[in-house]
Design goal:
The protein has 1 helix and 14 strands, in the order αββββββββββββββ. It is mostly beta strands and about 200 residues long.
């Protein structure tokens, strides 16, 4: 049983590392996968500067874009990685303290979040996951080890440039529940409530 727990923890570490160091998320206007937007082709038109947007103050923090220019910070929490053995295998999870996020928003069509990404960091390092409440904490399932080993990746999100140093993450069709952006063993969590 101890071997299964060690295997689950190892699988969790590998899966988490792979997700936070994998391929870059597609960035609007980035045809080469560099994380930079390509300059527009002039074709006889004068190139205009993009409109000024209000970027986040803190680098690496996650903000909810409630309306244009209105950024609300999501609370930051440290997370732990755990391996849980079972009869037919084990699972690796990320645990977030407290059963529910304090930051709540109503379910809606598109939800937009903004992150001022540190220089040289791939914007896809910020994964977005659904969490399940387990007693006094929330868990994000990352890997299962057993007859069939599986890993769970980040939920789909569209990533586009936002200002000079930030990226906007657009999420669509999210059901009510607990969610979190996770990077570098920190979670920026939120809860989505029914309309």
């Amino acid at each position: 049983m101890k071997k299964l727990a060690v295997a689950a923890t190892l699988a969790l570490g590998i899966a988490f590392y792979a997700q936070t160091s994998g391929a870059q998320a597609p960035v609007a206007g980035d045809s080469k996968g560099t994380g930079q937007t390509a300059p527009a082709s002039p074709r006889g038109q004068t190139q205009q500067d993009p409109p000024q947007v209000s970027e986040p103050e803190l680098v690496g923090a996650v903000y909810y874009l409630e309306s244009p220019g209105n950024l609300k910070p999501l609370p930051r929490q440290s997370v732990t990685a755990q391996g849980h053995p079972g009869f037919f295998g084990a699972k690796g999870v990320i645990e977030i303290p407290e059963p529910h996020a304090s930051f709540r928003i109503k379910a809606g069509a598109d939800m937009k979040f903004v992150i001022r990404v540190p220089n040289g960091i791939d914007p896809s390092k910020y994964g977005f996951y659904r969490a399940e409440t387990r007693g006094k904490r929330r868990e994000i399932l990352i890997a299962k080890v057993g007859f069939h080993s599986t890993t769970q990746g980040s939920l789909p999100r569209d990533v586009s440039k936002y200002g000079e140093s930030s990226y906007m993450y657009t999420l669509r069709g999210l059901d009510p529940g607990e969610y979190a952006f996770v990077a570098n063993f920190e979670a920026y969590s939120l809860g989505i409530d029914p309309q």
